[in-house]
Design brief:
Strand content: 15-25%
CATH superfamily of the largest domain: Pseudouridine synthase I, catalytic domain, C-terminal subdomain
Structural class: alpha+beta
Radius of gyration: 20 Å
Distance between the termini: 30 Å
Number of domains: 2
CATH class of the largest domain: Alpha Beta
CATH topology of the largest domain: Alpha-Beta Plaits
Oligomer: single chain
Order of helices and strands: HEEEHEEHEHEEHHE
Length: 246
């Protein structure tokens, strides 16, 4: 999802840092390509970006220089030279997302921007069953965004909405946190947030028990639940085949 014009983006900040570091003109600055787009308000613990530069800068030096130049909210955790054929998005074979829900009574201001506060009574067995039902290969059109812009709709119409989910589970963590972890070969726009919103509605009794399979088979966004807030979602990691990195 593209940010509205004039608002800062991770891609824009990284491109500007490269431009300052390399002394390149605006028209020559490398344009970093991310592993995928994230909605406004979504966080990334392990986003991957690729770009080509002509300067023979060692990866370790590049990482240090970028972190000195980037805003404090953005950090390069690792830099690596890869073959010219590598692309952060097209070479990816799996992604893992986490969605974090706070179940306690008092959510501090330091935690609030990174969790969805949910105090509903939830049937944990139904939550786990819904998570299990989305594993495997399915058409996830029922859980795709219904408010995508024209370019995003055209892009998704040209591609299959079938995805494979390798693992899908809810886990409880200290601090009254409930976390949904999902790993798959790809995700549609808003898919994880729609999965979470739908599973929460099932677990609070707003949908019939064991209804996730029926929602998938309906192939209609109106059959599923609401979109969970962006602030609870994290891109955890992106995976690549070893041969694409060497």
């Amino acid at each position: 999802m593209m940010a509205p014009p004039g608002l800062p983006t991770i891609q824009g900040e990284l491109q500007a840092a490269l431009q300052r570091m390399l002394g390149a003109g605006k028209e020559e600055a490398p344009l970093p390509q991310g592993s995928g787009r994230t909605d406004t308000g979504v966080h990334a613990l392990g986003q991957v970006a690729s770009f080509a530069i002509a300067a023979p800068i060692p990866a370790e030096n590049l990482q240090r220089a970028l972190n000195r130049t980037l805003p404090a909210a953005i950090r390069v955790l690792e830099a690596q030279a890869v073959p010219e054929t590598f692309h952060a998005r097209h070479s990816a074979v799996a992604k893992t997302y986490e969605y974090r829900i706070f179940r306690g009574g008092l959510c501090t201001p330091f935690l609030s921007p990174y969790v969805h506060e949910c105090r509903w009574i939830l049937d944990r067995a139904e939550l786990d069953k819904a998570a299990k039902d989305v594993t495997g290969e399915h058409d996830f059109i029922s859980l795709a965004a219904s408010d995508a812009d024209a370019s995003e709709r055209a892009e998704e119409e040209q591609r299959s909405t079938v995805r494979t989910i390798f693992s899908s589970e809810w886990v409880e963590l200290p601090g009254e946190m409930l976390v949904y972890r999902v790993r798959g070969n790809g995700f549609l726009h808003h898919m994880v947030r729609n999965l979470v919103g739908t599973m929460l509605e099932i677990a609070r009794g707003q949908f019939p028990a064991k209804s996730m399979s029926a929602i998938l088979h309906a192939r209609s966004r109106s059959a599923a639940g609401p979109t969970a807030p962006a602030k609870g979602l994290f891109l955890h990691s992106v995976e690549y085949p070893t041969e694409s990195l060497i």
